[in-house]
Design goal:
Blueprint: E1 2-5, H1 11-18, H2 22-28, H3 36-52, E2 58-64, H4 68-83, E3 87-93, H5 95-103, E4 109-115, H6 120-126, E5 130-147, H7 155-161, E6 168-170, H8 177-190, E7 196-198, H9 202-214, E8 220-225, H10 229-232, E9 235-237, E10 249-256, H11 259-262, H12 264-270, H13 277-288, H14 297-307, H15 309-315
Parallel strand pairs: 2-3, 2-4, 6-7
Antiparallel strand pairs: 1-3, 4-10, 5-8, 5-9, 5-10
Helix pairs in contact: 1-3, 4-13, 4-14, 13-14
């Protein structure tokens, strides 16, 4: 489990920042006001807005290890909330740890809950102690992907063509819902018990995908949509005629059981939050498929928000 804390605002700065819109934060910071009356009016408005926010000003976000849409959205919200004066802490961990911690009050938010299939077992176990804050993306899909020029077209082909892929199916984290679905549904349904199912981590899977496609070798990996890898590599999904990977899923934001009491203003923003395909793909590509920001996901999120100044303002109604 890894932790990072960005910056803590002084109390006076936090109160002032609460009333500022995200667009105004970047615009007003470099301006001076010659009209004293206008300046007084602006400060009064800011103070009133700050007083209206009754949230606790510390937020702890749990980020699922290896799930890049969750990483991207978590850092997007981290940037937005810090601009609003919150102190944000993030913890990256396996999805099971996040559900346990969220239910126990160790985290306030987790932005990557897949239902009705992928995280169904976690929701069944911990749902009574969580708050469902709504769906922000409704076209998510578990997949098994191969390089575009490989021979298999369907999961039904893999058993007979396993040698073409070195008898390896490359997976992600052992605790992931995708891993469980592959083990419990895909492999037995399509008779893939003869293939070595390798599970370790998403970065390891992506490294093998990168190396094998670069070398012109066949590869088969567990993956999901949305994911930036579809833009970065020449890959396609195998057909799933038996429907073992399920239909399109929804990605939810889950909060702690008492988040509506501790962070009512934040909850109202999250309940208004959605991302379209093009928005999510753009954010992911900036973070994971570009050299511009390296691994500075906060900087990528801030740059996207700067380029889309109406986005955060729209969440506040």
């Amino acid at each position: 489990m890894t932790r990072s804390t960005r910056r803590t605002f002084a109390a006076g700065s936090a109160v002032l920042a609460l009333g500022l819109t995200l667009a105004a934060c970047s615009t007003d910071s470099g301006d001076s006001t010659e009209d004293g009356a206008d300046e007084t009016t602006e400060e009064t408005t800011d103070a009133e807005a700050g007083a209206a926010n009754e949230d606790e000003m510390e937020v702890h976000i749990g980020i699922p290890s290896g799930w890049d849409e969750g990483i991207a959205v978590s850092h997007l919200w981290k940037s937005m909330l810090e601009d609003e004066g919150y102190t944000v802490e993030t913890t990256t961990a396996d999805i099971g740890v996040l559900f346990t911690g969220l239910a126990g009050g160790d985290f306030d938010l987790m932005f990557d809950g897949w239902l009705p299939l992928t995280h169904a077992s976690y929701w069944e176990e911990y749902g009574d102690d969580l708050t469902d804050l709504g769906v922000w993306y409704d076209n998510a899909k578990l997949t098994i992907a191969v390089n575009e020029d490989s021979p298999a077209q369907s999961l039904a082909d893999l058993a007979e063509m396993a040698d073409e892929y070195d008898n390896r199916l490359v997976g992600i984290e052992p605790g992931a819902g995708l891993t469980a679905t592959t083990q419990d549904a895909v492999i037995p349904t399509y008779g893939l018990e003869g293939m070595e199912y390798v599970t370790s981590s998403t970065p390891a899977m992506l490294a093998e995908l990168d190396s094998r496609t670069s070398a012109g070798e066949n590869v088969v990996v567990t993956l999901w949509r949305p994911h930036w890898a579809y833009d970065a590599y020449p890959i396609r999904d195998l057909e799933d005629p038996e429907g073992t990977l399920g239909e399109a899923e929804e990605i939810h934001t889950f909060g702690s059981g008492d988040i509506a009491e501790t962070h009512p203003t934040l909850v109202s923003w999250i309940e208004s939050f959605t991302l379209a395909d093009d928005q999510l793909f753009e954010i992911e590509n900036m973070m994971f498929n570009s050299d511009e920001f390296g691994e500075d996901y906060d900087a990528a999120a801030a740059a996207w928000l700067e380029a889309n100044p109406d986005f955060a303002e729209g969440l506040k109604g």
